[in-house]
Design a protein that fits this description.
- Pfam families: Epimerase.
- InterPro entries: Epimerase_deHydtase, NAD(P)-bd_dom_sf, NAD(P)-dependent_oxidoreduct.
- One of its GO terms (molecular function) is aldehyde dehydrogenase (NAD+) activity.
- This is NAD-dependent epimerase/dehydratase family protein.
- The structure is a single chain.
- The chain is an alpha/beta fold.
- It has a domain of 215 residues: Rossmann fold.
- Helix content is 43%, strand content 16%.
- The chain has a seven-stranded parallel β-sheet, with helices on both faces. A three-stranded mixed β-sheet has the order 8-9-11. Strands 6-12 form a two-stranded parallel ribbon.
- The longest helix has 22 residues.
- It is globular, with a radius of gyration of 19 Å.
- The two termini are 35 Å apart.
């Protein structure tokens, strides 16, 4: 079997490449000329240099491919380049779908996000949930929702595409929450807001195994949530604290965090800087709650995952 992975050098993409190779796939990976390829060290794959919107590059790359895994995305919150995010997440997805359709690819697996459900207001939902939030919490929220709409539309046109919807992705080289855990382990994380925020998590290796199962067993047009479970931020740090003996970071007053978010946004815009606290990030901490269950993936894909506590303890080790 021959597989093509977009965003092959990224966090999810690089783990996927390794798992595919372990299972006997021949792999091509799409990367940019400027990409850091350190995550792909010692991987035996064919690199394809280009951009998600480079149609001819994609057409040539997938000419002999059986399965496409689309993991590439612009992921960030706060003060972001919204035009670039739309180009990558929406137009890039449109291009890969169009090229796959023309090439009559046998299966395409799209890495979506549980964020497309919007704010579920604390309700635990499954794949049948219809988004009720009318607006969008961020440019990332909007562009991933638009991309999912494209994916579903192409399925209606006959493209055999399956959507994987992960919750928060954790792993040893996680570029998002990983640095926070590193600061905690160095005893340098003294404050962290939003202790009551509920977060669903999945280990990156469990995620990519689920994507491979989706390629093998997933039904075209279906959505599969991949989440190992959920816990509050306070519970997360409590597990880390129990494993290490390091005290939990303090949870600052919500009003203070909201005030800082409002005050620091103009500074970030002035300096072209995306601050660690902004109005958008504050909204995610206190006002938005997406809760999901992964029963369908367990039943239909045979997906298994390590527990939330196992994931966190592994990160500490």
């Amino acid at each position: 079997m021959k597989a093509f992975v977009t965003g092959a050098n990224g966090f999810t993409g690089s783990h996927l490449v390794k798992h595919l190779q372990q299972q006997g796939y021949q792999v091509k990976g799409l990367v940019r000329q400027s990409s850091n390829l350190s995550r792909l060290a010692n991987c035996d794959l064919e690199l394809v240099y280009g951009d998600l919107t480079h149609r001819q590059v994609l057409q040539d790359a997938i000419a002999d491919i059986d399965t496409i895994f689309h993991t590439a995305a612009y992921v960030d919150l706060g003060l972001v380049d919204e035009a670039e995010m739309e180009r990558v997440n929406v137009e890039g997805t449109r291009t890969i779908l169009e090229v796959a359709q023309s090439a009559r690819i046998s299966k395409i697996v799209y890495c979506s996000t549980i964020g497309v459900f919007g704010d579920t207001q604390g309700q635990v939902v499954d794949e049948t949930f219809q988004r009720t939030q009318q607006d969008f919490s961020s440019a990332y929220d909007r562009t991933k929702y638009q991309a999912q709409q494209l994916v579903d539309g192409f399925f209606q046109q006959g493209l055999p595409v399956v959507s994987i919807m992960p919750s928060g992705i954790f792993g040893r080289d996680d570029p998002h929450f990983g640095p926070v855990i590193q600061l905690f382990l160095k005893r340098q994380l003294k404050v962290w807001p939003g202790g009551d925020r509920v977060t669903g998590i999945v280990h990156v290796d469990d995620l990519v195994q689920g994507m491979i199962l989706a390629a093998q067993n997933g039904k075209p047009g279906e959505h599969y949530i991949l989440s190992s479970g959920e816990l509050t931020t306070r519970e997360m740090f409590a597990i880390l604290s129990e494993e290490t003996g390091i005290p939990l970071p303090a949870d600052p007053p919500e009003l203070l965090v909201r005030l800082v978010g409002r005050l620091i946004d103009p500074i970030g815009k002035l300096l072209s800087w995306n601050p660690p606290i902004s109005r958008e990030r504050v909204r995610y901490i206190y006002d938005r709650c997406v809760r999901v269950q992964a029963t369908k993936a367990h039943q239909e894909l045979g997906w298994q995952s390590r527990s939330v506590s196992e994931i966190l303890k592994e990160l500490v080790r």
